[in-house]
Design goal:
Largest sheet: 8 strands, mixed
Structural class: alpha/beta
Number of domains: 2
Bound molecules: ligand NA7
Number of helices: 15
CATH class of the largest domain: Alpha Beta
Shape: globular
Radius of gyration: 24 Å
Number of strands: 20
Amino acid sequence: MLKTQSAGTGDGRPVDAVIVGAGLAGLYELYRLRGAGFTTRVFEIGAGVGGTWYWNRYPGARCDVESIYYSYSFSEELEQEWEWTERYAAQPEILRYVEHVAKKFDLARDITFSTRVAAAHYRDADGLWEVRTDTGETVLARFLIMATGCLSVVKSPEVEGAGDFAGPIYHTGHWPHEGVDFTGQRVGLIGTGSSGVQSIPMIAQQAKTLTVFQRTPTYCYPAWNGPLAPETMAEAKANYREIRRQQRRSSGGVPGTRPTLSALEVDAAHREASYREAWASGDIFKLVSAYYDTVTDERANDYASEFVRERIGEIVRSPEVAEALKPRTYGVGTKRPCLDSGYYDAYNRDNVTLVNLRREPLERITPTGIQTAEREFEFDAIVFATGFDAMTGAMTSIDIRGRGGLKLTDAWAAGPHSLLGLQIAGFPNLFMIAGPLSPSVLTNFIVSIEQHVDWITSCIEHMRREGIGTIEATEAAQDDWVRQVAEAAARTLYPKTDSWYMGANVPGKPRVFLAYAGGLGAYGKLCDEVAADGYRGFEFGMKTSVPA
Ligand code: NA7
C-alpha cells in the first residue's frame, strides 16, 4: 500500500477524481467533471496541455482528419469563434487550439504539469485510489480516469548502439521544442509509418542528404492539403450541429455515406472510377470505403491495393525505388494508411536514398552512423520515426494495482481485457478514455473521446445520485466483450497484418487486435443501451456516498 504524504485537495481530503493526462481526452473530462461539481486533479507529464500535439513537433506533423471534423463539439461558442486555416491542420495550429480551449475554460488551475503518475493502488478498505507521482505527491481519489492516450509511449528501433552514436538522435514522438535545423547535414531516418511519411519530405528539403531506412512500405494517399476557404469554414459553422450528429452516428467519426456495393460485383471500369475519385478527394477514409468489402475480403482488397501500387509507380521515377515502395505483404487499409504531402515525390530528389531493410537488415547504430548487413552509412544526425507502444503502453508503464493488489500487467498478460474499453474487471472506479478494445484509433479520435467522456461523466453523476461508491466491470461481461471484439476483428483483414493495431510492432507483446472494429455509431448506441439498462455488465458496490 502506498504511504500517504498529502492528499487530493491539499487539505488531506480525497478528490472525487484523478485524471491522468491533459491531452484532448483529459481536458474534456476535466471540463465535464468540474461542470458537474466534482473535485478533480489532473497530472500531466508534459509542461503544457495537448498530449500528442504537445510531443509530436517533428517537421510536417499534421492531423490526417480534416480540421473541421477534428475539433471539439461540446461548446458552440468554441466552434463559432475558432477559425481553422488549413484543410488538414498542422501540429502548431492544433496545439494552439488545445491551448485556447484550456485557457477559455480556465482548465490549467486543476492540472499539475511536468508530473508523471508513477503508481495508482486501489484500497479495498475504503474504495479509494491512492495515486503517487514521480514528484513524491500522493493523492487519494474516488475515481481514477486514464486519459493517457493511445500513442504516447515512444518506441525505439530494436538495434544496439544508439548510445554510441556521436551525433544527436531525435524521436519524432519526442521532438525538441526549439526545432531542429538539418541544414547541410547528412541525416539517417528509420521508419516509414505516418511520422516518417510526414517528416521525410520536410527533412529532405533541408538536409544535405537524407537516407531512409524502410522495413515495411506503407500505403499513402495524396492529402491535397491547402488553405481552408473562408466559405467552407462559414458553411461548417452554420452546420456544425448536423455535422456533429453525423460524426457520432458514423462508423469512423467523420460524416459520410456507407458504401453499399461490393468491389466484386462491379466491373473494372467502375472500380477504377471509384478509386480515382477517392484518390482525388484527399480523404484518408475514402479509398477503403469505396466498397464495403475493401477491408473484409482479400480479392476486393487486392483491387484497391493494386490501384495504389500503380499510382506509386507513376509518381516515383526510379522503377527500382518505386518497386521497393510498393507494399505487397499486406493490403491497403489493414493498418493505418498515411496522407501524403510530397512523400513519394521526395524519392525523386537527388539527395534522398531509400534503403530496403528487407534486403539488407539493420545491424547496429555505430559511433558514426548506421550499419546494415551490407553497408555502413555515415550521418550527422539520426531520426527514429519508429512509432509507439500503442494502446496499452501508457497504462502498463504505470504501477496500477486493483482489488486485492491485482497488478494491471498481470491482468493484461495475455493482452488487454476490458468491458467496452471503459473499465477493467478487478479495477473498480478506474475508467479509460478511448482505451483498448474501444473503437478509438479506428476512428476520428476526438469524437471517440467525447463519446467516452460523456458516458463516464453520466455514470459518475448517476452514482452520486444513487449514493453508490463503486462500479466495476464483471468478469463475465468483460469476457463477452473481449470475445465480441475478437469476432469483429476476425470479420476483417486487420488481424492478418503486422501492425501496431495488433501489438505486432513491439517484440514480445501479445498479438491481439487492440480496438473494436464494429464502428463508432453502433458502439455508441450499445454504450447508451448498457447505461439505460442499469449499467448492464457492471457491478455497483459500496453503498456509500461519493464525496462531493
Ligand atoms: P508507426 O506507424 O508504428 O511506424 C513506425 C515505423 O517504424 C514503421 O515503418 C516500422 O516498420 C518502423 N520500425 C519500427 N521499429 C523498427 C525497427 N526496429 N527497424 C526498422 N524499422 C522499424 O508509427 P508512426 O509514429 O509513424 O505513426 C503512428 C500513428 O500516428 C499513425 O498510425 C497515425 O495514426 C498517427 P514496420 O512497419 O514495423 O516494419
